[in-house]
Design a protein that fits this description.
126 residues, mainly alpha, globular
Length: 126
């Protein structure tokens, strides 16, 4: 594997946690292995590995972008990751207010429901 892949796995584990990455790796198949390698290198080994902005800020951006584009399936995973990135529930709420104004209230409202449910599962009062 490349250095970017190694870096990506380290960052992915730091952000998402070992348990999540271990589950994802255990589910890996020949069909999705190239995809998994690509996101490990590009998303985690390049974008998330950059120190140009903080992981807290990246968390907020990622959650907002997922909500704004209607990609709700990964929001809970990124809410759980806030425990490792330092983004607070208030940070998430602020990011989703931007989504409401710039991308639509229904998307922000649905993302807030996911965030509330996920924070509750994490034992975090919001």
């Amino acid at each position: 594997m490349s250095d970017r892949h190694d870096t990506g796995m380290k960052v992915r584990r730091a952000v998402l946690g070992d348990a999540h990455v271990d589950r994802a790796e255990a589910a890996r198949t020949d069909l999705d292995a190239p995809f998994q390698d690509m996101i490990t290198e590009a998303a985690w080994g390049t974008v998330w590995a950059s120190d140009a902005i903080s992981r807290r800020e990246r968390s907020m951006l990622t959650i907002a972008l997922l909500a704004a584009t209607g990609n709700f399936d990964e929001i809970a995973m990124h809410i759980r990751a806030t425990a490792n990135t330092g983004a607070s529930p208030r940070d998430v709420a602020e990011a989703l207010q931007h989504v409401a104004i710039y991308a639509g209230v229904p998307r922000a409202n649905h993302a807030l429901k996911i965030a509330r449910d996920t924070f509750a599962e994490m034992g975090i009062e919001v």
